[in-house]
């Protein structure tokens, strides 16, 4: 009974991300998760902490951080932005 291969209602999507740097300026990131789904969320969070500075022509990374996160609810929400996008009634009913 290994980690789930499919995302289900009770899948544990939690993760912990720790970022540290040493005196030489090297940055190390460590993601700990119980399965692929948590690790994927950790990688997405890490990607949001990295930016390329076009002016300095360098990659900038947060030097020190500690994040522990998990979805608050077990289910996902859905947003249909009907004020800026046209959806036919048939498409809305199909989605619901």
UniProtKB/TrEMBL annotation:
Identification of the protein by name: beta-N-acetylhexosaminidase
Gene Ontology, cellular component aspect: plasma membrane
Reaction catalyzed: Hydrolysis of terminal non-reducing N-acetyl-D-hexosamine residues in N-acetyl-beta-D-hexosaminides
Gene3D superfamilies linked to this entry: Chitobiase/beta-hexosaminidase domain 2-like (3.30.379.10), Glycosidases (3.20.20.80)
Enzyme Commission no: 3.2.1.52
Residues covered by the Glycoside hydrolase family 20 catalytic domain: 73-96
UniProt keyword Signal, yes or no: yes
Molecular function in Gene Ontology: beta-N-acetylglucosaminidase activity
Keyword Plastid: no
Homology family: Belongs to the glycosyl hydrolase 20 family.
Positions in coiled-coil regions: none
Lineage: Eukaryota, Metazoa, Ecdysozoa, Arthropoda, Hexapoda
InterPro entries: Beta_hexosaminidase_sua/sub (IPR025705), GH (IPR017853), Glyco_hydro_20_cat (IPR015883), Hex-like_dom2 (IPR029018), HEX_eukaryotic_N (IPR029019)
Residue stretches making up the Beta-hexosaminidase eukaryotic type N-terminal domain: 6-49
Alphabetically ordered keywords of this record: Glycoprotein, Glycosidase, Hydrolase, Signal
GO BP annotations listed: carbohydrate metabolic process; glycosaminoglycan metabolic process; N-glycan processing; rhodopsin biosynthetic process
């Amino acid at each position: 009974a290994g980690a789930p291969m499919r995302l289900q209602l009770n899948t544990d999507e939690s993760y912990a991300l720790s970022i540290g740097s040493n005196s030489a300026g090297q940055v190390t990131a460590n993601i700990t998760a119980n399965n692929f789904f948590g690790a994927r969320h950790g990688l997405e969070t890490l990607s949001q902490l990295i930016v390329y500075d076009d002016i300095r022509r360098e990659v900038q990374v947060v030097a020190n951080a500690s994040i522990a996160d998990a979805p608050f609810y077990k289910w996902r929400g859905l947003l249909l932005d009907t004020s800026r996008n046209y959806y036919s009634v048939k498409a809305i009913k199909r989605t619901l």
